[in-house]
Specification:
mainly alpha; globular; single chain; 207 residues
Length: 207
Amino acid sequence: MFDLPDDEIARATVDLVRRNESAAIANHSIRSYLFARLVAAHRGLRAGPDFAPDLLFYACALHDIGLSEVGDRPERFEVAGADIAAEFLTGRLDSGSIDLVWQAIALHTSPGIAERRGSVCALTRAGIGLDFGRDAGIISAADAVRIHRAYPRLAMARTLIDAIVEQALRRPEKAPRYTLAGELARERAESGTTALEAQVAASRWDD
């Protein structure tokens, strides 16, 4: 459960992430997958019959690629990231699998929607949320230590939100009002910090 997929596509995925994202954001992306696997086990979901573990890995690993230089497109970072993931996976996976990964990435900041779009979408959002401290109580101390030792946090929340806000300020079309990027930019401008950063600071993980 704590091993990453090790086939050609998975290795190329990790390489894409490591080459284009900061260490803090890349580690967050990998931790999100490991946490998603633990969420699946907690919910009694089995890899294979209940969800495709390879698609879950691609979705979690690539969910923030839209915040990288290669992902700096006019669309919201979630949509830009989903598009980049789809382009990367084209020719490697069938169209249905690519669409599942696209949905999981595009919807990972959409509560109440991702959870209705199948297990890969739901687990992707859950794993990402858990790395922000949501429902962290389901993770044992031993599992938490093992994951964080392998993939340190490195001030993840601040680094990630800095990247979102920087894009929003430079390209306002990427941060419409009431989207995650729009709200984070507004909170930073008004108070210098964000509720999401406060949530992580008060969580089991800190930052």
